[in-house]
Task: structure prediction
Amino acid sequence: MSQSNIRNFCIIAHIDHGKSTLADRMMEITHTVEKRDMKSQLLDSMDLEREKGITIKLAPVRMHHKGVDLNLIDTPGHVDFSYEVSRSLEACEGAVLVVDASQGIQAQTLANVYLALAADLTIIPVLNKIDLPAADVPRVSAEIINLLGCAEQDILKISAKTGEGVETVLDTIVERVVPPMGDANSPTRALIFDSYYDDYRGVILYTRVVDGAIKKGDTIAMLATGAHGLALEVGALSPAMKEEPDIGTGEIGYIVTNLKTTRDAKVGDTVTVRRSHSDQALPGYQNVKPFVYAGFFPVSNEDYQDLKDAVEKLSLSDSALQFEPENSPVLGFGVRIGFLGLLHMDIIRERLEREYDLDLVVTNPSTDYQVSLTSGEELDIKSASDLPNVATVKEIREPWIKGEIVVPQEYIGAVIQLIVAKRGRQSNLSYIDERALISFEAPLANLLTDFYDQLKSVTSGYGSFNYELSAYRAEDLVRVDFYVGGEMVDALSVMCHRSESMALGRDVTKKLKEVVPRQSFEVSLQAAIGGKFIARENIGAYRKDVTGYLYGGDVSRKKKLLAKQAKGKKRMKRFGKVDIPSEAFTVMLKRD
Result:
């Protein structure tokens, strides 16, 4: 098809503002999907996506409207997947910005708008859910005009649920989005904006052809990873796969390859073909690095092999997932997995439990730290127990993030207090109509466990949050170790700032006191930095009344028996071992 009859666009929005529903209506109006095959959120193929109401894997679809091919890419809305969103935007010329008429602009909306402006896309603002009783069209329209500098008549007002105004959106895309400008005669270059592993067919790539064409049977090469393969089948998605002889310049389609893992074909890489080879990669490729790590252990050690196989299978279709085996004296064998963020971790955990039927104990999520040693060596540690001897450490650097929070103005004070409590620094405060945009910097480790939940509770659910990794900074960081009955428990060690170590030590020893079972001898629970103890709790021993059966007689008989018991308890304390139940770790995670 000639490029003048192609329009490539994506839908960007905050979570739950209705972009998957809008995609459903578009497919219905253009008769891409028959009415009988239609179900809500058709492009969200995982059960998990439907339950949570979020898009996790993005999906492209080709529609025909008034003689024009419309290629839609449905993008994930969550901050963890912002690199994938940026690659999807690179594959398009236009973006439909969906804003909920009852909620207005949120943090993720802003982040995605900046990405779209950076990619130089034509932005079409759409106000969704105007049929809701809570919709406030004039206020939210003013917010959009403020943000984009567009005119009131440029904003399309629709209801994706009822289908009102959706046809106008399609007409506007045809009118305002520019067609692709590729060169059909130059060497072939195509951008991978998503890839996944199919159990029966191998790795399948979703690509946007920038120059040239890719035909069935071509030998393909990836410029960043250097991998080679064959294009076993090419075609378009509508939304099912429809085979075609080739994908031409400016088109979006899929390539079924003979590659064995998505690590060979990562998101953002450039595909070229042997018969028309190009050495010039498309700009913007990054090797995505995980920065949240957690240990996954099976409740029963017999399931370790099943866990390992399950993680390997998941990593075939998720190139951002990195893992290595881990062994803990208390929890046994497990794997340490790296994630793009907390949502990513949550999804992987749910998929392991559901799809592979595993019972898991997950350790406290931590981030990675860069350590400079006095010998000049540089280390990258992923868990506190890997930290070398403190005497050899010159400095420890931790990741900081740049964050943005959008809240109604009456919650500004509470949010700034929350940021300061997490060792963050507020850098800017600006206003969008009745809302405030708070920009701040904070250490990532402090936001991992429960920052999002606390933000939702101090803002009555109205706050929205978006962040990106900024840099690694040298801070006064220490490793806090925990001792149970005089023995150090590796799996409980955490890295934290020296100023927070005392409070953390006290909290955790108190929690441990509740979960470690009582013994026949006294058990001490201690927190320490290096050789210095900073907090302590004692679990009292069970006491049996050994003098109970004595009747009268001399008091020295009583004393003799009690002294014998005290001696026995001392001996027990020397040789006794404390079994720490695995529930102790799950309670430990809830550091509320």
